[in-house]
Amino acid sequence: MSREKFADYGTVLEGWYWGMRSDELAPGTARALNLMGRELVLYRGENGAVVAMDAYCPHMGAHLGEGWVQGDSIRCVFHYWKFGPDGGCSEAPCFKGTPPASIRQRTFPVEEKYGLLWVWTGPAPRYPVPCPPELEGEELDFAMGRAFRKNCHPHVLLINAIDENHFASVHHLPFPLHMESETLGRSAIEFRNDTRWPDDWWFPRWIGKLYRGAATYKLTYWNGSTGAVTLGPDFLHFYILFVLRPSADGDGRIRGEAIRPNPKGFWGYLWSAATFAFQPSVGRGGTEGWPIVVTKRRKGLAGWLFNRVVLFVTGIVGQYFAAGDSWVFRSIKYRLKTPVKADHAILKFIQHAEAQPVAEGWAENSPPPEPRGAAILKELETA
Ligand code: FES
Ligand SMILES: [Fe+2]
């Protein structure tokens, strides 16, 4: 049966998703994580390596997050079965000798990057944790912004950045964008602007001189949940990652909040962007995410200081863009019922999302399966 994958909370596309902050998991500790409906335990072994595995013990369903980390393994608190980083049961007091190899807990690939722990929602990653393509192979410097919640699905947030129409109405951009797309492998798609800064008055004409051709504005999306923005003049590109996931508690609603009108005009918009950090967050669910600003590592103290400035400026640019739309995402119920020509990039994104592999059965590990009492007793007697 084919189902719609775009902006559907019931479908998890296979890929990398952020789980928690790296510094939330100290060596020798375990934490429970509900990742898009699946109950997991993340633990950091005493050697510092992080393991993600299904939460419920294959013996009787105790939550392994209650257990103890021992070496590179985790021990269930109930009957002391111990599971290693590959999910195998290495020790259990009730078995003489090694437990049967058939006792396994499902594990998932984990990476640490940008101060976050990332979990791959399938057996083996098909690509690395997302990185702005221009920075691939570079050593990175980064800064995390403030975690946020929005009242809509991550896809709806991501397509905002390629919504050509709204750059004039919401962001007051003085020239039209036109986003050309290119697929990068099966799970990534890139959109690039191919229009230039206008030359009708001195300010944009002056900015336009910093670009050899089109105004650099590029979006790269991976499995519909992480987006990288690349923008800026030819001599210095800025990179912002929007690391998103559908939130565990589904789509939130505005509750008893007065909906303030969208700020009018350029100055109203600027005011809204400047005060964005102080505005109440009304979303309860939908999307949980992080803005992360990235640049390449530069050498020495001067390089480090330069990077602080670059990352700070990138953060302001990111906030400027994010703030303009915050009003819309409080209440939108996304339906592209009347697509127009300028929505072509959005339609490409939707098409891309529909072609993504799905993490089948992702949210089905909770609750644990029913025991088949009589059948199991018989199996045990004959074993
Ligand atoms: S429930 Fe985990 S060892 Fe029994
Ligand atoms: Fe926007």
Task: Describe the structure using short key phrases.
binds fe (ii) ion; 26% strand; 383 residues; alpha+beta; elongated; 7 helices; binds FE2/S2 (inorganic) cluster; eight-stranded antiparallel beta sheet; Naphthalene 1,2-dioxygenase Alpha Subunit, Chain A, domain 1; Rieske Iron-sulfur Protein
Oligomer: single chain
For the largest beta-sheet, the strand count, sense and barrel status come to:
8 strands, antiparallel
Number of helices: 7
Would you give the CATH topology of the largest domain?
Answer: Naphthalene 1,2-dioxygenase Alpha Subunit, Chain A, domain 1
Report on the architecture of this protein.
With 383 residues, this protein is an alpha+beta fold. The protein folds into 2 domains: 16-122 and 361-382, Rieske [2Fe-2S] iron-sulphur domain (Rieske Iron-sulfur Protein), CATH 2.102.10.10; 133-354, Naphthalene 1,2-dioxygenase Alpha Subunit, Chain A, domain 1. Helices cover 19% and strands 26% of the residues. It has helices at 154-159, 166-169, 202-208, 265-274, 300-325, 344-354, 373-382, and strands at residues 16-21, 29-35, 38-44, 50-54, 68-70, 73-75, 82-83, 89-91, 107-108, 110-113, 116-120, 140-144, 148-150, 179-184, 188-193, 217-222, 226-231, 238-246, 287-296. Strands 12, 13, 14, 15, 16, 17, 18 and 19 form an 8-stranded antiparallel β-sheet that branches. Helix 4 (265-274) packs across helix 5. The protein is elongated and about 85 Å long. Fe (ii) ion binds at residues 160, 166, 170-171, 321, 324-325.
